[in-house]
Amino acid sequence: MSPPRVLTIAGSDSGGGAGIQADLKTFLSLGTYGLSVLTALTAQNTTGVSAIHACPPEFVLQQFDSVASDIQIDAVKMGMLCNEGIVGALAKRLGEWKQSTGAHGGHNVPIVLDPVMVSTSGSLLLSEGAIATLIRDLLPLCTLLTPNLPEARQLLNYAAKFTSHQSGTRELDLAKENEETELPQMMAAARNIAQLGPRAVLVKGGHAKLSRSQIDEYLSYRAETASANEVRIAPTSKPSTSRSSGSRYPQRTKSRPADAHQGRIDNDDELRQLAGVDGAIITRKGNVTAIRTDQNPFSDVLHQRPGSPGADDKVVCDVLYQQGDDGTDGTFVLFVKPLLASSATHGTGCTLSSALAASLAQGYSAVRATSIAIKYVQNAIACGIQDLGSGPGPLDHSYPFHPRGLIASPSDMGKSELPLHRSLIANSLDAWTGFVQHPFVLGLADGSLPRDGFVWFMKQDYLFLRHYARIWAQAAASPDTTFDEITTLVDMSRSIAQEAELHKRLCRESLGVSEAELECATTESAATLAYTRFVLDTGRSSDVLDFLVAVSPCMVGYAQVGRWLAHHRSATLNKDYAEWIEAYASDDFQQAAQKAMQLIEARAARDELSPGRMRKLQRIWNAACRLEASMWDEAMDPSLRRPVLEP
């Protein structure tokens, strides 16, 4: 079977970061086949657009007719439409195509429209006539509209001029330019724009000045005023069959996908899968569902978030509104995610709408498609190409299948803080987040982690730490280590021995596990054996950096998890869980992790990090992250707990 086929109708970006170039890269990355209809050619690079050449409307239609008459289209993404002639011609032709039910007709084919109306500097890119035609003729054909805040503001303002949909628009307008935008304004805008015809509207929040406390405050207010009580959606205990974004083997639908409007949130199964696949914290308050990844332990190294507990850091909130059936009230879904510190954001809007179209073409609901698209964009920004030209760089659309070393030479090491760790984490986002966002961590935070799972893990982790301490000491004996490195490595071994003492004390005093049972009657499980042997085998390598990268995820990951848990733990958490969290959030452990990271960075600065060398280090890092997660898998699932040897 051919992959799902997705058509982009948009302009070209000669710099390759946005437009149809970004669309086609996104389609390929998400496992679909890209088709294209060009509306305009642009002369642009990372610093801006110097010229635009619009295609004649007749030629735009010829391109569309040529593709649609021969190839079944499973979804359409529309971007820059350039002028009134093109907007009007496409609206008429797409309307006819949507009514067609033939072999290559467009009935029920989802259409995603990214209304490219406002430039980065704030200038209008479409004439008033083009905007009027877009609102009147094109919006009713859309399955999903994806305006950013300036575009949402213009749509509301022009709707009041050109249409009869004026009821309530004045009070529901977004804040004026240069004023802060509140979440309720974004939600009102999404609902009001949906009255213009789109079946669903995603108002993107990248331009809003929102903090985590504002999100918390609004959701608390909703909990007090909503007709339904708050419902927290726990991850499903069954493995999800849904494809996470970035998979090279996407789900393939056997028939044309249903219209995305039919994929409303009408049960909790999909949300449970989202919680399990994406590590999201999901709550429902009345007709508002919040899907939050801002509260998960993302890496401070990668996302450069404030480290002190309680820091009121900025977040991005995208608001999805889906109209109700038969005049019923619609539903809101809030996608709250951390704000990434990156200048490589050129083409973000194009990429998001393309990822939405690709996911809808594979039969996902609007909510799941939006989750996939947002996750893909977040990861592509984190891996963005910041040094492509002299202006803002593009996203890295190929990150799922072509990891890119971010360090070209030792001379580049001083250009950013912790460059090797940033590179390793950016190129292992699925493995890394699968570790630090594990259900084990979330269960520790709210106390829902089964006690027997915690006991199992503490016993197995004690066995692992014994090997882990040996390996740090073994590295100190390497013939090419410096005196400073020997001192740090020995200190690390001593710190791990102290960590093991915590395990012994908790097991003895709180968990009912004697020291004799811990030392003599506990054998390594399959996950523990696999991890310890991997680290031991890597430690036998003559290359110290290989070993250091193999042990780094354990130190860095637990430091990140400890800090996050200290901030997000339940106030009524039991003593055992609280003491474990306090140990890894403590200044002593945090400082030890920082020393380990600095040691690794200094060692990397001394070595020649060729692309082949980076690939090897990346494989070691990825394996360690997955092996870390597998130990927590055993703790969460009793069916996986199989001692390799009987005691």
From TrEMBL:
- Note the InterPro entries from the entry: Haem_Oase-like_multi-hlx, HMP/HMP-P_kinase_dom, PM/HMP-P_kinase-1, Ribokinase-like, Thiaminase-2/PQQC
Q: Where is the Thiaminase-2/PQQC domain?
A: 430-637
Task: Note the Pfam families from the entry.
Answer: Phos_pyr_kin, TENA_THI-4
Q: What GO biological process terms does the UniProt entry carry, in alphabetical order?
A: thiamine biosynthetic process
Biased composition, Low complexity: where in the chain? 235-248
Q: Which Gene Ontology molecular-function terms are recorded?
A: hydroxymethylpyrimidine kinase activity; phosphomethylpyrimidine kinase activity
Q: Which domain of life is it from?
A: Eukaryota
- Give start-end ranges for the coiled-coil region(s): none
Q: Which residues form the Pyridoxamine kinase/Phosphomethylpyrimidine kinase domain?
A: 13-234, 312-395
Q: Does the keyword Lipid metabolism apply?
A: no
Spans annotated as Disordered:
230-268
Keywords of the record, alphabetical order, are: Kinase, Transferase
Respond yes or no to whether keyword Transferase is given for this record. Answer: yes
Q: Where is the composition biased (Basic and acidic residues)?
A: 256-268
Annotated Gene Ontology cellular components are: cytosol
What is the protein's name according to its record?
A: Related to THI21 - Hydroxymethylpyrimidine phosphate kinase, involved in the last steps in thiamine biosynthesis
Species annotation:
Pseudozyma antarctica
